[in-house]
Specification:
Helix content: under 10%
CATH class of the largest domain: Mainly Beta
CATH topology of the largest domain: Immunoglobulin-like
Structural class: mainly beta
Number of strands: 15
Membrane topology: Single-pass membrane protein
InterPro entries: CD200R, Ig-like_dom_sf, Ig-like_fold
GO molecular function: signaling receptor activity
Main location: membrane
Strand order of the largest sheet: 4-3-2-7-8
Number of domains: 2
Protein name: Cell surface glycoprotein CD200 receptor 1-A
Order of helices and strands: EEEEEEEEEEEEEEE
């Protein structure tokens, strides 16, 4: 999320027509097209974050600026040449790194929260195994995972929460 994504079409000589058909999970379809006979491009129902200006001397790439969850979906490129039609399909999945917070609850027990991640993060504790796990899904496709340490080793002063996610891994320690 927030980064740019670049999707490439098959680069072929003598392109007659090139079309991007975009089917996002949110909102309606979008089409981008180029016709060689009229040297024109056209866009239908596409947001301004779709940056595509086709020129025969440049590769047929689509740049999605500041990718968000709304851009998730299928992206199909079709290139038409005298030799035939060539397709490339992408399924864009957006990763949202969770926000990590570690605190002590009202009973003095450590609580680790990985908030608003996509997909949900995996939360565990270093050197401790007795914990409870709660997961809350949000309307925007993200999820918050909350882990409460239910029993602590009395010899350990600091407890460490470890969060694993496709966008990265993090750890933080606390003494309650």
């Amino acid at each position: 999320v927030g980064d740019s994504s670049v999707l490439a079409c098959p680069l072929k000589p003598n392109i007659n027509m090139l079309t991007w058909k975009i089917y996002p999970k949110v909102g309606g379809p979008c089409n981008l097209g180029y016709r060689a006979d009229t040297n024109t491009t056209d866009r239908t129902n596409c947001s301004d974050s779709m940056n595509w200006k086709f020129r025969p001397d440049l590769g047929p790439v689509l740049e999605i600026q500041q990718v968000g969850i709304a851009q998730e979906g299928n992206y199909i490129c079709e290139v038409v040449t005298p030799e035939g039609n060539f397709h490339r399909t992408y399924h864009l999945t957006v990763l949202v790194p969770p926000r990590l917070s570690l605190f002590c609850d009202e009973h003095g027990k450590p609580v680790c929260e990985a908030a608003a991640g996509k997909p949900p993060a995996q939360v565990s504790w270093l050197l401790e195994s007795n914990s409870s796990l709660e997961e809350e899904s949000h309307d925007n496709g993200t999820a918050t995972v909350l882990s409460r340490l239910t029993a602590c080793d009395t010899n350990v002063t600091d407890t460490t929460c470890v969060v694993f996610h496709p966008a990265g891994s993090w750890s933080e320690s606390i003494a309650c």
